[in-house]
Amino acid sequence: MSATAPTGPRAADAPADGGAPQEAERAAEFEALVAAGESVEPRDWMPDGYRRMLIRQIAQHAHSEIIGMQPEGGWLTRAPSLHRKSVLIAKVQDEAGHGLYLYSAAETLGVDRADLLDALHRGQQRYAATFNHPALTWADTGAIAWLTDGAAVTNQAPLCRTSYGPYARAMRRICQEEAFHVRLGFDMLLALCEGTPEQRAMAQDAVDRWWLPAVALMFGPPDTETAGTREPAAALGAAVSRRAIAWGIKHHTNDELRQRFVDHVVPQAEQLGLTLPDPGIRWNDERGHYDFGPIDWEVYRGSLEEDSHTARRRIAHRVAAHRDGAWVREAAAAYAERPTAPDAAPDRTTAGEGKPTG
Amino acid sequence: MRDPATTARPAAPGARGTAPGDALARHVRRLGDDALILGQRLCETVTRAPTIEEDLALSNIALDLIGHARVLLTRSGQLDGSGRSEDDLAFRRTEREFENVLLVELERGDFAVTIARQLVFSHYAVLHYTALADAADPELAAFGTRAARESAYHRHHADRWTERLGRGTAESHRRMQAAVDRVWPYTAELFEEDELSRTLVATGAVPSVAALHDDWAAAVTAVLDRAGLTVPALGPQPRGGRDGLHTEDFAPLLAELQSVHRQYPGGSW
């Protein structure tokens, strides 16, 4: 909310003797301010549901950045040129940075990064299921950057205007960097497509495998009637999306964003000379959009399984890094508490993940 | 342990002629190999660091090191007139043709080993690159200026962690001391000069690394003192990297580094 509105929902420390009627009044004022496009700041009053929805979404987003480092990080040591190696290191580094911005944004809602990481490690909080797909070849790093990051940009661009200020500000920085990743992914695939037949085949194979994860998993389940499904899941998805849209957390349905992504990517695939693995893709003059085939939601649900080989591997990798680093975090915390330590002041570099015993 | 004074050393297959340009090219290639292989080891730590901040810091340092390798290998390929690119040199040479110091190829170990290796290397790198800024070759000189500045950040990072771990907990102290003990013998090779480098030093083409040793030892000792760590006694000093004679840790590292490039002959990336 604007800083010029000192009363109303901002006055979180006002006496709470008004009881339920005051709560309802606050909620109404909150919704009016969100509807007016104002930004909600950490000390503002906010409905519990809004806070919970944001924590869930921001944490899931942060976890996705951190887990998303793995499929590409695994190829850092094998990048086939020093230029591509540098680009990939920079990209994985950006993802770590995005994770940090997002955990910080979540912390403004009264949660602790260490607790969020614990929840991730215990499987209590999710990350984008897309990353439960294995990165099998070098070309996968290009396909991930072009398609998965491309989908992420489509999803995230509207989040730069999301109602919660710290999240919106984090997203503005993230979106700029993500857009750059997409261009680099495209460029990397272009090099493969202009290379030997074997390189081109590697690129096509990667795009074949990463198309569905991007188009299905990055946007979530259908949440509109137009998605051509009458499943109860779609109705539930639609209800959640309506709530998120009303609170200004989301601005578009999953299906709107999915269509936007398809419209964006099809011409790029033509430029690359790669075939997207969906025979239903064709331009629809009447709609002014590309049609695409129905998504096999069984694949979607299958990918949400937490016991798939790659999903177990992703979490085990995270847990091992965290466990192996426990003695380091303990040491940093102990050192920071020493009276003579030059970094006795709070130091995000060392104490970031708190709970040294974790 | 071979004694360099008494053991005949087979010339590495990478050794080319002895024209001045070739000598400088080989010297520069050795430095490029150091940066490349250390950068490769750091790439292994990314996604495995104790905190997200450290994933960020270590990948940042790896990025700088790969950047250093690119400049140095490119320059080497120009100086020897072979026209070999940075990628030709990184991806198409064999084990015996790499002439990095053994220190940078040692298996990554725990976080303390990463820090100990960064400590001894970054202190060396700042001194060496600062001196290189006065090199006759203008490209090398420009590289020296830039690389010294970046290495100063790496040194700061290593200094701070050495102190935190040395003075953190009993476990971190034990691990950090073990890590310093582990890498220490391999530091001698950083300052070793052979006929090739002595010739280049004599002509003023490159700075003497041997002359940097005492400053390096004083600076690293000061950090170890602040960290409450003991400077290891000088024992056997493994060497051979500069002649392409590596540890068994090296071949698997190189196989991984070159795997995709070699799987796609004639590929463009």
Automatic annotation (TrEMBL), chain A:
GO terms for biological process: phenylacetate catabolic process. The keyword Aminoacyl-tRNA synthetase does not apply. GO terms for cellular component: cytosol. Signal peptide: none annotated. Transmembrane segments: none annotated. One of its GO terms (molecular function) is phenylacetyl-CoA 1,2-epoxidase activity. Its EC number is 1.14.13.149. It comes from the Bacteria. Keywords: Oxidoreductase. It is an enzyme of class 1 (oxidoreductase). The keyword Oxidoreductase applies. Pfam families: PaaA_PaaC. Residues 1-21, 334-351 have a biased composition (Low complexity). Residues 1-25, 334-358 are annotated as: Disordered. This is 1,2-phenylacetyl-CoA epoxidase subunit A. It comes from Streptomyces lonarensis.
